[in-house]
Amino acid sequence: MSRLFEELDYQVTDIGAISLRRRRILSLDTDVWEVMLGDEHLMSSLFTASEVALAERGLAALGEATERGWDVVVGGLGLGYTAAAVLADKRVGTLEVVELLGPVIEWHEKGLIPLDPPLAADSRCTVREGDFFAMAASEEGFGAPKDAILIDIDHTPDWLLDQRSGSFYSEEGLEKLARHLKPGGVMGLWSDAGADAAFIARLASVFSEAWSEPVTFHNPLQDKPFTQTVYLARK
């Protein structure tokens, strides 16, 4: 039996104090890893269905892979489930994960995250410390244009983790991101809420196609289903 609660790391960052903790949920007989920003829950290893769906559905929206494979960017590392799901697709040639917070990268480097295998075990994957939103707005972007850019950072387009990302969800911000996609490339965005028709319309004003897909999973703590959203758009 593991200890009921353990704080694995605590560090102060530019956007507040962030911590990684593991706790035992006796009713489920399982250990859960959680990321906290102050007193706010950011993510949990108990609920990963929509993070995985962001990768799987984003890649499913692409056409046939070239011989060298798809080039993918994931914005936001977190517990790594989106990145791991990208790497599970053998059609992926390269994956670059952009993470703002150095402590989150350190958790993966130190093996504090329950990913098996760890992201570092896959030579296709690189993790870069940087501001995803600043990179998306820049001319240089992420280097050469990508086949897919998948984003799991803010709670929703209107519920932001940090104010520096606000302009990204505007029509102008989305247009800047679109420059970094290849023709036919796909943008995917995770949201901790139901679909927002106004945001889909904004995506459709920039991309050739835009839609949302619900991701419903069972919440064992509340014993009821819960629905989150993956937004997708094709250049």
Note down, in words, how this protein is organized.
Helix content is 22%, strand content 38%. It is α/β, with parallel strands linked by helices and 235 residues long. The protein has one domain: Rossmann fold (3-Layer(aba) Sandwich), CATH 3.40.50. Strands 7-6-5-8-9-11-10 form a seven-stranded mixed β-sheet. Helix 3 links the parallel strand 6 and strand 7. Helix 1 runs parallel beside helix 2 and helix 5 crosses helix 6. The model has no long low-confidence stretch (mean pLDDT 94).
How many strand segments?
A: 11
**Rg estimate, integer Å:** 17 Å
By CATH, the superfamily comes out as Vaccinia Virus protein VP39
Task: Tell me about the largest β-sheet.
Answer: 7 strands, mixed
Shape: globular
> What's the overall average pLDDT, rounded?
94
SSE order in H/E notation? EEEEHEHEHEHEHEHEE
Work out the strand percent.
Answer: 35-45%
Pairing-aware structural class of the strands and helices? alpha/beta
CATH topology: Rossmann fold
CATH architecture: 3-Layer(aba) Sandwich
Q: CA-to-CA gap between the ends? A: 50 Å
Main β-sheet, spatial strand arrangement? 7-6-5-8-9-11-10
Task: Tally the structural domains.
Answer: 1
Helix share bin: 10-25%
